[in-house]
Amino acid sequence: MTTQAVDAPASAPQRPAGGQRRRRSGIERRQNVGWLFIAPFLVVFAAFLVFPLVYAFGMSLFSSTLATGTKFVGIDNYLKAFTDPLFLGGMGRVLLYAIVMIPAQLIVAGVAALLLDTLATWLSKASRLLIFAPYAIPVVIGALMWSFLYSPRFGPASTIFDLFGLDAPNFLSSDNIFFSLVNIVTWQWSGYYMIVIYAALRAIDPAIYEAARIDGASGFQIATRVKVPMISSSMIMVITFALIGTLQFFTEPTVLRSVASGALPADYTPNMYAFALAFSYSQFNYAATIAFSLGILVFLGSFGFLFLTRKQNGLK
Amino acid sequence: MKSKLLAASGVVAVAAAALTGCSAGDAAESCTNEIVNPDATQVSVWAWYPAFEEVVDLFNQNHDDVQICWTNAGQGNDEYTKFSTAIESGSGAPDVIMLEAEVLSSFSIRDALVDLSEYGAAEVKDDYTEGAWKDVSSGDAVYAIPVDGGPMGMLYRKDILDQYGIPVPTTWDEFAAAAKTLKDAGAPGVLADFPPNGRAYTQALFAQAGSVPFDYDNAKPGEIGIDVADQGSKDALSFWADLADQGLVAVDEAFTADYNTMLVDGTYAIYVAAAWGPGYLQGLEGTDENAVWQAAPVPQWDASNPVQINWGGSTFAVTSQAKDPEAAAVVAKEVFGTEEAWKIGIEQAALFPLWKPILESDYFRDLEYPFFGGQQINKDVFLDAAAGYAGFTFSPFQNYAYDQLQQEVTAVVVDGSKDASTALDDLQATLETYATEQGFELK
Amino acid sequence: MAVLPAATDANTRAMTVADTRALRRQERARRSGTAGGRRIGSHVLLIIMAIYFVVPIWWLFVAATKSTGSLFSSPALWFDDPLAFFANVVGLFEHQGGIYWRWLGNSFLYAFSAGLGATIVAVLAGYGFAKYRFRGRTAVFGMILGSVMVPLTALVIPTFMLLSQYGLINTPWAVILPSLLNPFGVYLMRVYTQDAVPDELLEAARIDGAGEWRTFRTIVVPLLRPAIVTVLLLSVVGTWNNFFLPLAVLTNPDLLPVTVGLNRWLALSNAGAGGEQVWNLITSGAFISVVPLLLSFLFLQRYWQGGLTLGSVK
């Protein structure tokens, strides 16, 4: 299905060539009823998104320092942001997370979904639930649980590593914190992505497998050459959402900061930086600028990704 | 079935709306405590002291004209974040707020606090020591009323030191020697921890070595002097970095469950602590049953010229959003202005009073602490430490300064990527740049 | 935004599932006959994955049954004295006057009222977008989808100001009203409505003289039921898990949801102020608070598994 089909006229009006004016305006009036249906949403949208956004954007055009007052500075804050090593450093860090974390989640979710699709035992059904379960746990509580599990004294790591005769690494040191965070996010979200991919797999017509098998494809080949390409649009959606989430990385490192503040400085990710600027350093205007700059980069990033994959996602 | 579902949702929605409507109505007036005199002026207070409810009840019973409506809005930074948001948006702050002394300048520069000199602060000035008063005032202006303080001492495990034949260190040199003895003897733990996220604690240790990091006066808010890379700070940081490097002290982060346990299970033989430290230890789990705790004065650089230091301490300030600043000032001045209130604070919340009538009382001096085997720790250690404290000046961007300090200290003692001197020079440069950006003139 | 077509694509495919079920069963049966060894391998891999995902939850369960002391002294993944769980529950009733249960109740209240509200709003809007072609529709819809990319930190201060202007700070409304915003729900409802409600049906209703609202209520809503349940579930979960909004707009301890409340206990326990070490209550409180959602996911499997296919997106 393509864009065309999506936008198919709702009531499929077949306008007579003669153009009956009265009937047309009747249709138009009826179409405008649509506004009434979306009105409640638009009110919420205007109050809790458009208004705050416009306000925050306005804030970003002013500068206010501790010792001097507030003054209008135009885009100066943006010029500052895009040369600010702390913002750029944080941006680089989340890009690195995107490069590592998204494939990690996708591989775990994809492999699990492919396995589930070929197995239909009670065991696989139970596994599906268990893998999905972390999604039901609030992110804050999930991160909190991991901060315990990573604890050098109370966590199970030492017990587990002892089994293999190894010393447990310190998960919270500045060298390891990156992968510790990747692990938390993978744990929390992979199950969700797995369900999405699994659902897409189930939607494939098995006749296609039959055809592939007749052509002599093995199970593995069917998985990689038939299934994966057929669910690419779902994969792209998953990646887009993971990308947006990763660039805005905030909650997990913020929670872990309470046990690893040395490894996770206040400006670790751009979103954390914006938060620290506003709430610890009282620089609300510059904080709004950082948040907006991040929003712009997220938009460009995800739009760019969708553009690059337009062939697979059906975007023309 | 479907319409039933929708109808059911409708009912729930209405019920929910009714419920929230209900609580929304009285939420504005909601207090954690009970109001004794409903006709009196109500003053809203944010504070996180343990056992504070009893103190509030006491105040409300004793006042006909003013009543406290208390809320715990979170501890430390949680509360400050809320306060900060409220200041920025122009509403939502309480009338009176508990603030640590170190953040007073950060809020007064944003015009968030009322100058209490106009509301009778002078009346209570004599109830506090000079050092305590200096922490809350700037020139003639008074931004808060002191409540509790954190004069520092040294808590140690007598059983561990005795076991290894280590005398109680009185100087930092002896401290270093003790650390080495302990390590050489193959003890399972270390002598102490130097937490890289100590912040105020680190600052206090530097101050003992002569550091005066900031020169700032609220009367001239556009000027600041920054001197964080003086010789005293460098020496103190090198001292700890050196011990850490040899593995003689730990560099675990403070205020985590891990750290709390190690404090009491014998991993650290010494806890250099503030006067509220004993209360802290008492509340921790996993205590070694054979532990014998004692308190001693904090080690000195120069035993013939002892310098007392302070770690933490809190105050009550009146916010600029107070509806009735006069009534709010009464609360700030009087809530911890009775012996009864202080007995609750001392015995249940382990606070160290700055209010002289109790600070200088026999009761407080002779108080025996069961945790220390009946030692009179106030008489032995903390009263002297409090008396010797001369006050401290914080910067109006203290949170930023602490964050930067923490990063530099981490680089030195944890990562070993810098030496103490370079790190503090870097800190000086960072803070100067920041102050200039924020429109301050450097003194 | 552009996510729409692709997702719809997957969705149409989902529609064919029922027809091919039988074929799929045969296929599975055949394969299990020929590749038994591989099936064992697949199972082993799957179980390893399941263990990875479930170990932290197991830990939480075990930790909920420990006293603070044994939490810090006994092996992390096994029970010490399971009966301590009951002592912990008693503790939850006693500590600060049993405020934990109030938090739990608040979480329910916020999640269900915001979830219901958001769902109603989304169903209406989704239908409006799917079945009416008014001017500006595409632009408005694009804007709504674009809003997913806005970082929340940008909105905290202005939202706070807006709410405080109307005296809503520190009231349940401060959490519920902003949570009504669920662009993703609108998107899901639009996609689903497009396929599940045939235009001919609407046309027929109109010819019969039914008004727009009546058509919607009596004909459309019943057809949308599976999607409504899904959006409801997702909105409820979204509000239940919310942390930063309530953290910012609520100060009164009696109004906090359980996420923020537990976090406050954590801060107190870390700070270690006299007598505030309640690690056992934090772990048992966290465990009890995740049980309702885990159970509802278990029992509502049919809905969320089907529902997530809707847009084949988050």
UniProtKB/TrEMBL annotation, chain A:
Cell compartment(s), UniProt? Cell membrane
Q: How does it sit in the membrane?
A: Multi-pass membrane protein
- One BP annotation, GO: transmembrane transport
The principal location of this protein is membrane
Q: Carries keyword Cytoplasm? A: no
- Domain (ABC transmembrane type-1) spans 91-309
Segments passing through the bilayer: 33-57, 94-117, 129-149, 177-201, 230-250, 286-308
Segments carrying the region annotation (Disordered) are 1-25
Q: Name one Pfam family in it.
A: BPD_transp_1
Entry's Gene Ontology cellular component terms: plasma membrane
Keywords, alphabetical: Cell membrane, Membrane, Transmembrane, Transmembrane helix, Transport
* Family of the protein in this entry: Belongs to the binding-protein-dependent transport system permease family.
Q: Which PANTHER family match?
A: ABC TRANSPORTER PERMEASE PROTEIN, DIACETYLCHITOBIOSE UPTAKE SYSTEM PERMEASE PROTEIN NGCF
Provide the protein name: Sugar ABC transporter permease
The species is Agromyces intestinalis
Automatic annotation (TrEMBL), chain B:
Pfam families in the record: SBP_bac_1 (PF01547)
Query: Which keywords has UniProt assigned to this entry?
Result: Signal
Q: Which Gene3D superfamilies match?
A: Periplasmic binding protein-like II
Q: Which InterPro entries match?
A: Bact_solute-bd_prot1, SBP
Domain of life assignment = Bacteria
Which positions make up the signal peptide? 1-27
**What is the protein's given name?**
Extracellular solute-binding protein
Originating organism = Agromyces intestinalis
